[in-house]
Amino acid sequence: MSITVVGSIAYDAVKTPFGERERMLGGAAVHFALAASFFAEVRVVGPVGDDFGEAELDVLRSRGVNISDIERVAGGKTFFWRGEYGWDLNSRETLDTQLGVFEGFQPKLSATSRSSDVLFLANIQPDLQREVRTQLPGARFVALDSMNLWIDIARDSLVQAIESVDCVILNDSELRQLTGKPNLLAAAQEILSWAPADEERPGVGGPQVIVAKQGEYGAALVTRDGFFALPAYPLETVIDPTGAGDTFAGGMMGYLARRGRVTSATLRRGMAYGTVLASFNVEDFGVRRVASLTRPRVEARLREFRKILKF
Ligand code: AMP
């Protein structure tokens, strides 16, 4: 099965205690697509500027990602993000965000991207997420990510976007901020109760799956009938956490697209793949590690992860 992702395609400048990089390939849609490409055909939707290089597109091509809906905007500049991490990598400061070609972006999806069974609305302006959602009315499983910025400045639109998806994948602090509930389970239950008014969107039932990303502590899953949680894969060396959340989502959603069925078992196993892919992502700057990974290495680390979790 195939999966469409819309989100940022970026140049990132990142400083961590282990070094800095000035201009490397990044963006939520890129991290997501590379991780998901281990399991399913991935179609990326998003704009880039004249400054976006062929070498960067080749990274996506080399993993078999379909890039025909990456729109090159003449005279435009690619989305740029600069961030710096604290000494233990748990705190991050955004120093610069330049929307560039995202300003005025109007997603136009090809018939191929519209035909995907699975859709991931990566972290972008919620109006854009809603616009893309309407272009895939038949998608069988739709998930969304967001960030504190949109909770602060576009909450109403974000709530409507959430009501139109099956699955919400957010940092746990964002779940708390979004709902105003200090307890993670209560926050997740609150979002599970959101549903669009029937007459607005007949047949759409609102989110049924909440995934709380907890950084180096792992991820939790909340549905109406259960709870599940996984720690992060333990690593002694972490170089750059940028994109870990998107890589996690890509591994999880890619696995769900491959399996074709969303059940309690496939959600749990999808989270395990997401965790494993994210652990590779943080071992080097940007997309370097995941872009050069092989499926057998993914499977080997998944086996290690299983051993760790046995008790
Ligand atoms: P994460 O570490 O999972 O939060 O993702 C970091 C990635 O998200 C980087 O590659 C950035 O290019 C991208 N990013 C950062 N801020 C934004 C934003 N406001 N909108 C879209 N993408 C962003």
Please describe the topology of this protein.
Layout (H helix, E strand, L loop, with lengths): L1 E5 L3 E7 L2 E8 L1 H9 L4 E9 L4 H9 L7 E4 L5 E7 L6 E7 L12 H4 L3 E4 L4 H10 L5 E4 L3 H6 L1 H9 L3 E5 H8 L4 H9 L16 E5 L5 E5 L2 E5 L13 H16 L4 H18 L6 H4 L3 H15 L2
The structure holds adenosine monophosphate.
The site of adenosine monophosphate has 16 residues, from strand 2 and helix 9.
Please tag this protein with its features.
single chain; 311 residues; alpha/beta; 9-stranded mixed sheet; globular; binds adenosine monophosphate
Tell me what you see in this structure.
The chain is of the alpha/beta class. The protein has helices at 28-36, 54-62, 111-114, 126-135, 148-153, 155-163, 172-179, 184-192, 244-259, 264-281, 288-291, 295-309; strands at residues 2-6, 10-16, 19-26, 41-49, 70-73, 79-85, 92-98, 118-121, 141-144, 167-171, 209-213, 219-223, 226-230. The strands form two sheets. The protein has a nine-stranded mixed β-sheet, sandwiched between helices. A four-stranded mixed β-sheet has the order 3-2-6-7. Strand 2 and strand 3 form a beta hairpin. Helix 4 packs parallel to helix 6 (155-163) and helix 7 packs across helix 8. The longest helix is centred in the C-terminal third of the chain and has 18 residues, at 264-281. The two termini are 34 Å apart. 45% of the residues are buried. The mean pLDDT is 95.
